[in-house]
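Today's session is about reading a structure prediction critically. Students often jump straight to the picture, but the first step is always the sequence itself: look for stretches that repeat, for charged clusters, for runs of hydrophobic residues. Only then move on to the predicted structure, which in these notes is written as discrete structure tokens rather than atom positions. Here is the chain we will use throughout the hour.
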Amino acid sequence: MAARTDTREKWALAAGVGLMTVWGVNFAITKVVLAEFGVWPFLFIRFLSMPLFGFALLVAVTRRHFPKSWPQRGDLPRFVLCGLIGHTAHVSLVMWGINLSTAFSSSLVLTSSPLWTLMILAVLGAEKLHGRQLAGTLVAFTGIVVFLSDKFVRGLALAGAGDMVLLLAASLFSLYTVIAKPLVERYGPLNLMCYSLLFGAPPLVLATLPAFIRAPLGDIGAGLWFGLFWAVAVSSFLGWIVWAWVNSVRGLARSAPLQYLMPPIAGLVAWLTLGETFTGLKILGAIVALIGIAWAQLGAKAATPPDAA
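Below is the predicted structure for this chain, in token form.
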């Protein structure tokens, strides 16, 4: 049993690192896609296709047992919250923020979500936090502050509306992660994805339909359609399922610092593809963030038992 647990831990860590790579690359791809499609048409396509992907896979997996996948009545309010907070609010704010900011800054601000996660867990008492985990996360967050210091030193307004929107989105993602954890343990990542989208997708599909109808999609090239597929099917659909599984295996507090891998990856890709440039201060911030990751990961202990929050 212990060997099996260790194997799952290793696979979950590898999956988490791989997912951070996918999400890091996705910032540059999303910037390009949003510039061509527009935020609202992109959101329409995303929230129309993801439930279709999800339920098609769920039916294929469960087959004749599909009706049994429906959540229990007592869990429906939590699924509704996950849909409205994690999808309707969080994703729409992320797309809006990325469109207003740069790929690199977007990745940096969104990595504040582990700090929000630890704060929420501490308030709820849902998961025991170790000193090195908290210290490592705070050190990594300090790296984010250093990254953005060239903006903040000239005034809060110059930090950019996009960064402020993304900061709010990061807190909502942390809240979603905490709310969703018991559902992952009871139903699995795929069921969580499908039934949270069932409640979270319709409001955005209806709100963004007019913009989608007006969008000149006939002028979009094949490369951009592939970028859209990557952003929706790979990064979003598969990514959220993998992230839910990683959290269920490793625990929220141990998985959260992995998100600090995204900024260096996003920065490198943005430099290579979008021509974004970075000062020595920003590079220093990246180093500080990576030190925080290592500290938090080396200080992490065995996964905590599933919480009953």
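Discussion point for the tutorial: The chain has twelve helices and no strands.
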